[in-house]
Amino acid sequence: MDDTAPTGHPPDDAPVPAVAPGTRSVLRIEIAGRTIWQVIGAILLTLVLLRMAAAARGLLGMVALAFFFSLAMDPAVRWLRRRYGWRRGAAVGAIYLLGLAFLVFLVFVLVPAIETLAAVVTENGATWVQQLNAWTSETFGFPIATDEVATGAGAAGSAIEEFGDEAFGRVLGLASAGVTLVFNLATIAMFAFYFTADAPRVKRAVLRLFSERSQQRIGWAWDQAIVQTGGYFYSRLILMGINGVGFFATMVIVGLPVSLATPLALFGGFVSVFIPAIGTYIGAAIPILVTLAVQGLVPGLVVLGYALVYQQLENYVLSPRISANTMSLNGGVAFGAALAGGAIAGPVGAFVALPVAAMISATISNYAAGHDVVYRSPFDESEDGDVVVLDDADAGAADDGASSSTPMR
Question: pTM of the entire structure?
């Protein structure tokens, strides 16, 4: 066979044909008609799915919230199974009954407390304003409130009592007046019950849709969601109980009636631990102001002293031990997550923002590539805030690096 015979392909060393001056090369791209129809179909399907998601956004939001609550209940369900051998459905039912009993107790405790507070404000409101005026006049030389304010202070009690009656009536008439709200709550409860009672089956059904490598990642993220969400709720509940008992004991000791101390302790304990950043101040402010109004200056200062001491005890002793390995979030990240959650989904978003942020942070830290820090700065500090003293060699190297305007590569 002749090696020089043409094969249909030019040899590798063949010269490239010259292009005549003034001519232009044109690249032609041909797309099959089938591909065009596939792209159009994919776009239309995406638009339909987005339209359906927008129409069902209320239902999707309830399902997401139910899944979140199921993650929070899962550790308690597993504990009841290990301790008492209950089925998952029975364990979830027991948790539901406990939560319902707490809500009923809260309603029937708060309403009498509002009525008691209204009666106290009606009886003493004008006197409190006059006493405040006398104190500011002696101290600063001028009254802080006008006579109209003093007259209206007594009428504030009637407004408080009217608000309490309306709130109680709305709670009792919830089944008839708020059909949509009842349906939404029942839907969330039903989905949460299903997700928790059949959690192992649901998890396996989801993992079957992915490859083995993806199953490892998704399963780990799922477990982290349970750890972060459950750890957040149960650590917060423990801190709420400790703070509530402390508030209650302090207010009763200074002479506040039990009918007022009980709801104020519940309010202070709940708000201070479940509302990030500003919850500590709001949760302490209301009990302090009520104690100050009902019992006077010294008892109010005692409650204020308890709030300040407990806050330091929680920050440095209780919270690090109770929340160990569950909620390791920077304070700035926690505050930003709460603001973002509130902006996206209102109060519910702010409520669930911290465990979601903790789960995202744990996922990023698990998959992000980490490296040892080799750079030494003359401004370094240790984790406890102490200044790091560099030796002569390290200080010289740090000074050279700090004075250089070109980053090392």
Answer: 0.64
